[in-house]
Design brief:
It comes from Paenibacillus hexagrammi. This is MBL fold metallo-hydrolase. Counteracts the endogenous Pycsar antiviral defense system. Phosphodiesterase that enables metal-dependent hydrolysis of host cyclic nucleotide Pycsar defense signals such as cCMP and cUMP. There is one protein chain. The chain is an alpha/beta fold. It has one domain: Ribonuclease Z/Hydroxyacylglutathione hydrolase-like (Metallo-beta-lactamase, Chain A), CATH 3.60.15.10. Helices cover 24% and strands 22% of the residues. The chain is built from six helices and ten strands; from the N terminus they run βββαβααβααβββββα. The strands form two sheets. A six-stranded mixed sheet has the order 1-2-3-4-5-6, with helices on one face. The longest helix is centred in the last third of the chain and has 18 residues. Bound molecules: zinc ion. The site of zinc ion has 5 residues, from loops.
């Protein structure tokens, strides 16, 4: 599959790029990576419209982890699009709101974010339709996107990342709070640095 057919659209959810969702637009529709805070569906609808797409063109909703700024509108968007939600089992009890989510602010962005009212918003609970288990890697080929979903725990137990064959990566949050949990090995830290670089690339494209 030609990578030139893939376009990544950033959807700013909060000002100053504190929180973003992304659309990966392929030839047969698109994948939404993260769903923003509750009420983000209008912003996402506008971003879709700019690409001449509607909610119905969303083939998959990837929720990178259970924090409200990434999972907040997932249930509503599933209803509007009919697309399945893909998420990791490690955060399942948070998606269903059985267990309250914790925050571990390590960078200035998250310290700022934790001061906003958004963080305390409850969101509509949901269960993932496609649950990523343990270390399993999920191919996105069937959605027309050459790439994979990989488990990248650290920020939360169930954090996942999207890696495209073009070596671009989309991760929910780069704050490596896993360091505080003692969960990051040195190669993992290098990996996070690489992801930061690719995200910077995404910002200018
Ligand atoms: Zn987070």
């Amino acid at each position: 599959m030609m990578m030139s057919h893939i376009k990544i659209v950033r959807i700013p959810i909060l000002p100053m790029y504190m929180v973003n969702a992304h659309l990966i637009v392929g030839p047969d529709g698109c994948i939404l990576v993260d769903a923003g805070v509750p009420g983000s569906e209008h912003k996402i609808e506008r971003a879709l419209a700019k690409e001449r797409l509607t909610f119905k063109d969303i083939k998959l909703i990837v929720v990178t982890h259970a924090h409200v700024d990434h999972a907040g509108s997932a249930a509503v968007l599933r209803e509007k699009s009919g697309a399945p939600i893909l998420a990791h089992e490690g955060d399942a009890k948070h998606f269903s709101r059985e267990t309250p989510m914790t925050f571990c602010p390590t960078g200035w962005v998250s310290r700022l974010f934790i001061k906003t009212p958004f963080i305390f918003q409850p969101y509509v609970p949901f269960e993932a339709d496609i649950q990523v288990t343990r270390q399993s890697v999920i191919s996105l080929d069937r959605y027309g996107i050459p790439g994979k979903i990989r488990h990248t725990p650290g920020h939360t137990a169930g954090s996942i990342s999207v890696e495209l064959e073009s070596n671009q990566a989309l991760v929910g949050d780069l704050v490596a709070s896993g360091i505080l949990l003692g969960g990051l090995s040195e190669p993992h830290v290098r990996y996070v640095r690489l992801l930061k670089m690719t995200l910077t690339w995404l910002r200018v494209n």
